[in-house]
Amino acid sequence: MAVGYGNEVVQSLECFSTLIDRNGGPAATFLELEEYQKTWRTTKFTAQRPLDEKLWHSLTRTKSSLKLHARAGVIPKLRRQLWLSALQVRDEDVVLYSKALGQPEQGHIHPEIVLPPGVPGFSQRPEFTISFNRVLEHITEKTYYISHCPVLPIIAHLLLHFLEEWECFVGLNNLLKRQASLNKTEVESTASILTIIKLMNSHLRGVDLTTLKPIGMGENLFLMKVLTHWYRWPFINQPFWIAVRIMDLYLVEGPKIFYRLALSAIKLYHNSTMLDADRTGDLSPSELIPHFLSTLTLEQRSDWIQQALNLPRFSWDSLFKTWLQNCSIAEEMVDKQELHMSDQMFMQTNGEEKKPTCSKIKVDPTSEILSPDDCQTIGNWLPDWAQGDYLNCIFQASKHGYNLRTLYRKCELSELLILVIRSRDHSVFGAVVIGDLKDRHNNTFFGSGETFLFTLKPNSRCYYWTAESDLILRANDEELIVGSGGGQFGLWLDGDLDRGSTATCSSYSNPPLTGNNITDFKCAAIEVFSISWES
């Protein structure tokens, strides 16, 4: 039998997995398996209705609408359709694979592109391996720019359980075209590791794995080794249906889900009893977390994914900017074969000034609070991706009015906001807020772990997230809260922007930001700034 499209003819390319019947639908045999049934029950990560055919046809199929339902579950009959849609595979794309098959076979696959041991599979037909090797050979021949992509064979292996061979080829080709969707070179892989380390410092403060490092090894070199195969953690030695659920999330939400899972795995490992046991163990650094994940029960694995999804938001835009910046650092590291960095490149300590890292940054001359020196101090505390040229004043209470709703309206289009307050006793303090203010309508805590508190006067200090509490940001018409936990607010403002309070909270372990142990204050001036770049 042949598949035809226009004048092109392709040999029969059916799926060689027992999960798909010859009509392209799901085979029903696995539905009765206890492992599948248990995974279905334990991987419902939201209270929404699981994604089914009726929802599929009624939804607009935007990312936001699909995400909540996909997190709740995907019925087997729809999974193949969901994956094809997420990969943007069209029927006419069969021609692409027809042309690939027409090329002479080289009989080899790039040595970096091999399936590692421990990847789960499900009752495949004998031809499955032949089909898998054929897809990888043609995808690596077509995409000549791949030199280091350890996760590619894992993705291909799982896709082939639900897609036909040509669909898998086209889907992988589309994935590889998306920047940062899959790391394709050693530079990109190294940049992703540097990004994880950055995220650890902003989202996992208090988590320290370097107590496990061998004597004589630098801290950052050790972390690099621990994170060597971080992209594989969601799949290696995982139950098949857990790996499938992670694929659901990846194809709908993008590579950000892998970063979430990595941070969640690191946090769980740090808080586990295995951390102490591994101090004297024989595992290499790269084996520590994969081994830990392999010991989890099905319920614990589901909790791991749930905790990953519950991490405070970090936008893909900011994550991508950090990754891009790290690509230039990684290129130098790879060129020099130098995978050890200064131990102070990433580490920051609460209450201490970060060493100057940004060029001269200018402040809006209309500011009634900030001096050029204050502006430079704040600039040195900002994440690397936010190192701009100019602080633009987008809200000024003396000009726009002392009203919290007006502040939101003026500021909700900016990803990063710098809130600065001068109290009537002349203290100057505030917060760098990273998060989408539109999320305030949910009336829950939100925001990124890169959000932090600071004091400028009487003494300049910043206070980064400790990861002890996920209560980072809450905003409504009556109040604005930055940092909570332990029954206290790091910074609280009322709806009239007239008064506020500041106290030690577990999210930031900050003293009162007024600098004089006074918790309640009256506002003399309030300004909010955004970052801009010179053209």
Textual characterization of the structure:
With 535 residues, the protein is α+β, with helices and mostly antiparallel strands. It has 19 helices and 13 strands. The protein has helices at residues 34-42, 53-58, 63-72, 76-86, 94-102, 128-142, 152-159, 165-177, 186-203, 219-226, 240-253, 256-270, 274-277, 288-294, 298-310, 316-336, 372-381, 397-400, 404-411; strands at 2-5, 8-11, 362-363, 390-396, 416-423, 428-434, 452-457, 461-463, 473-475, 479-485, 488-494, 499-501, 520-532. Strands 3, 4, 5, 6, 7, 8, 9, 10, 11, 12 and 13 form an eleven-stranded mixed β-sheet that branches. A two-stranded antiparallel sheet has the order 1-2. The protein is elongated and about 80 Å long. The relative contact order is 0.09.
